[in-house]
């Protein structure tokens, strides 16, 4: 999402390369490029003005000491300002002293409210909570059915009332939640293609009736600077407590992420980075600032790995590798684990320097699908003992998976090379348990 902004900021910082010190002249030239980059990314003009002024004031007033280069110093100052603009630290959800905690999702139609509330329910379920989803959007065709379908995949109940108005649905849902000991009530309200008076009156009435602990404005990051004005209107009429950015994995220029917190004055609480219900993350300003500047986000990478990490299975896998019993069934399980963590492009982008290295490079996510298809076209005996896969079996696997014999040959060759590498690792001093143990230790802390 931030590739273009990242590239432009790099060009601006390069203007200080080779300079012995920061002067008003060279910092003004560099910040002119920063200003253009931010405006091009659709960042609100007030945010751009404050950002440039603050960076300039701090840069000119800071002495470059020791081996620190001017370009390194300006990166640190820009990083600090990005964090400051986006909110300094993460903002946790409010919690009721006496359950249930009530959360309202508001926003325009098409912003991803319904999908977000399902993602939030999945997020809370992982933390051991018992959420209830409330279908208060009775206007959009199939909105209630969509919510029920999403909820069924995560085993979360949906409260709805046929023929009732949204205000009564929201009120009755609280009684239902208390009766059945639900910890959270998450209300999916109706939206429109644009702000209109009836919609505002309805969501304001629901807010007054159920007194939610959180009113989250769900914003499509693809909208850009227009989202700022809409968020301000919702805050003035309804009173929002936080912001959710959806479609952050798309082609948006990033202006909304950098503008909303400063202009609206409300924290960004969550970001949605994909279509899967697991792709909802707590917003960390410092981590996003690191990614914008091409420094990666290794903390988020490790956190995702921890969510999928199973210490017992890791020990079992290591034992198989040590005994040279690692087979295609194990390989398939590892592929699925990686895919649950998110898109490969996004995961690689979390590693320092990879955003720059991958710029302009196409990564075919379908490669994993093709590999899965080939493995699933093998018999259980073939998966456990790939050495028996002869010419006729390769042809059958290719036909069954919609691939070619060459694809199957390539997979078998790569698998054989991987087995050799694993044998080399386990026969040496480096133990595969080291990495899982380190992750497990950080998880226990």
Furnish the topology, listing elements before pairings.
Blueprint: H1 3-14, H2 24-40, H3 45-60, H4 70-86, E1 101-106, H5 113-126, E2 131-135, H6 143-153, E3 158-159, H7 166-179, E4 184-188, H8 197-210, E5 214-220, H9 226-237, E6 242-246, H10 255-264, E7 268-272, E8 280-282, H11 285-292, H12 298-308, H13 311-322, H14 328-341, H15 344-349, H16 354-357, H17 366-376, H18 380-384, H19 391-401, H20 405-427, H21 434-444
Describe this structure in words.
The protein has about 450 residues and is an alpha/beta fold. It has three domains: about 5-85, Four Helix Bundle (Hemerythrin (Met), subunit A), CATH 1.20.120.140; about 100-295, P-loop containing nucleotide triphosphate hydrolases (Rossmann fold), CATH 3.40.50.300; about 300-445, 434 Repressor (Amino-terminal Domain) (Orthogonal Bundle). Helix content is about 55%, strand content about 10%. It contains 21 helices and eight strands. It has helices spanning about 5-15, 25-40, 45-60, 70-85, 115-125, 145-155, 165-180, 195-210, 225-235, 255-265, 285-290, 300-310, 310-320, 330-340, 345-350, 355, 365-375, 380-385, 390-400, 405-425, 435-445, and strands spanning about 100-105, 130-135, 160, 185-190, 215-220, 240-245, 270, 280. An eight-stranded mixed sheet has the order 3-2-4-1-5-6-7-8, with helices on both faces. Strand 5 (about 215-220), helix 9 and strand 6 form a beta-alpha-beta unit. Helix 3 (about 45-60) crosses helix 4 (about 70-85), helix 5 packs parallel to helix 6 (about 145-155) and helix 14 (about 330-340) runs antiparallel to helix 17 (about 365-375). The longest helix is centred in the last third of the chain and has 23 residues, at about 405-425. Residues about 430-445 have low confidence and may be disordered.
